[in-house]
Write a structure and sequence with these properties.
This protein is an all-alpha fold. The radius of gyration is 21 Å and the shape is globular. Keywords: Amino-acid transport, Cell inner membrane, Cell membrane, Ion transport, Membrane, Sodium, Sodium transport, Symport, Transmembrane, Transmembrane helix, Transport. Its main location: membrane. Catalyzes the sodium-dependent transport of glutamate.
């Protein structure tokens, strides 16, 4: 049996990450459902190991020691994105949508616990099939999986992946049809219907695009990237002390909580005082790279055989969770967001990131605007909440549930 050390494992993960991008580019169905490339690459390895297990063969063993720091780096970048100034960009609607998403994350866990108990499964199984993998997605599911395993949930990493992947598919299938039904049933006036009424052609979509950051050449870009990397490491280092201190108090916390909180503190200090001159773009690039490598390495070492016998509970729980999300979209969300065309498009994005990922949200909203016309408010509010704000509040929700039910 071949054993790979941490660097070799990471290199192998990088190769399969690139393979995942190549496969997604050549298989339209994968692009249509916004399946993340790291998931595709990592699953290739996991499925190959599952096939080898049928012949009692283990061809390779991975040392995933670098998985933890990669995961912490990603969530630290999420912390750096939790800027209070962002709440002022979309104003009241961002605050309302974030509050609604956070409340729904709590409901997802309550529903999951009730259904898991009905199937004779541990209550925490309902949490991992609730906001951990639905509002959180694959990254949050795999990040929290060790805590659920320690709490007695059998095969937590495999359950997290299966539920997150199924959620991505459900979000892609449900989001656009739900918004279309709301638009047509409530006779919401779309930009194209207004243009036709005025005898004019539809205007192109006007999606807000962040202003380009001026730089003084490659050296300035390199320095901005280096500074962002150093501050992420600094937040991770200080955060490790904070997480250790909170753990000593008896709280069960994911290892990234301290670093994420430190990242948020540094970002907001920089926003208000301008001490550090951080580059949000560089932080995003580093965070996304860490996320991709974390996902592919975590999935390569996944034990899919742990899912045997759990297919029915997973499908039932996900089906009920999907109904709950659609119900929230049809009433409180639509009403709070203005009961107009933008609100309906925002509802489709809400389905996307509360069952799948922000990529799902953007994909389904784009399919609607291609048909009905631009929805600039929806494209401003939904991605801000879905991309990182809900990850921040959801981590707190999950932590509370773990500590109550452990």
């Amino acid at each position: 049996m071949l054993t790979l050390d941490p660097i070799q494992t990471l290199a192998c993960g990088g190769v399969f990450l690139i393979a995942g991008y190549a496969i997604r580019g050549r298989v339209p169905l994968l692009s249509r459902f916004s399946i993340p490339a790291p998931v595709i690459g990592g699953l290739l390895v996991a499925l190959a190991l599952l096939a080898c297990r049928q012949w009692n063969v283990t061809p390779v063993r991975f040392d995933t020691a670098l998985k933890q720091p990669l995961m912490i780096a990603f969530f630290t970048a999420i912390g750096f994105n939790a800027s209070t100034s962002l709440l002022k960009v979309g104003g009241r609607q961002i605050v309302l949508l974030l509050g609604l998403a956070t409340g729904l994350a709590v409901v997802q866990n309550v529903v999951g616990i009730a259904l898991a108990t009905a199937f004779g499964l541990p209550p925490l199984f309902g949490v991992i099939t609730g906001s951990v993998t639905l509002a959180g997605g694959p990254a949050t599911g795999l990040a929290f999986a060790p805590l659920f395993t320690a709490a007695g949930v059998q095969g937590a990493p495999s359950v997290a992946l299966a539920n997150a992947m199924a959620g991505i598919v459900f979000a892609s299938v449900i989001g656009a049809p739900l918004a279309t039904m709301l638009i047509e049933r409530l006779k919401l006036r779309t930009p194209r219907s207004l243009d036709m009424a005025d005898g004019a052609q539809a205007s192109p979509q006007a999606v807000p695009v962040p202003a380009a950051t001026s730089v003084d050449g490659a050296e300035a870009q390199a320095y901005a990237g280096l500074k962002s990397f150093v501050f992420i490491l600094l937040a991770m280092g200080i955060g490790a002390w904070i997480s250790g201190g909170l753990g000593a108090l008896g709280l069960t916390l994911p290892s990234y909580i301290g670093a994420m909180l430190v990242g948020a503190l540094i970002r907001n200090l920089d926003d208000h005082l301008g001490w550090f001159g951080l580059s949000p773009r560089s932080i995003d690039i580093i965070g996304n790279a860490a996320l991709s490598l974390f996902l592919v390495v975590a999935l390569m070492d996944l034990h899919l055989w742990d899912l045997a016998g759990l297919a029915m509970p997973l499908l039932v729980i996900l089906g009920v969770q999907s109904i709950v999300v659609m119900a929230v979209c049809c009433w409180p969300l639509l009403r709070l967001m203005g009961r107009d065309y933008d609100a309906a498009v925002m509802a489709s994005g809400f389905v996307g990131f509360m069952l799948g990922t922000t990529a799902n949200a953007v994909a389904v909203m784009s399919s609607l605007t291609e048909r009905f016309g631009p929805a600039p408010r929806a494209f401003l509010v939904a991605p801000i909440v879905g991309a990182f704000l809900i990850d921040f509040t959801n981590a707190i929700v999950i932590t509370v549930f773990i500590n109550v039910w452990k």
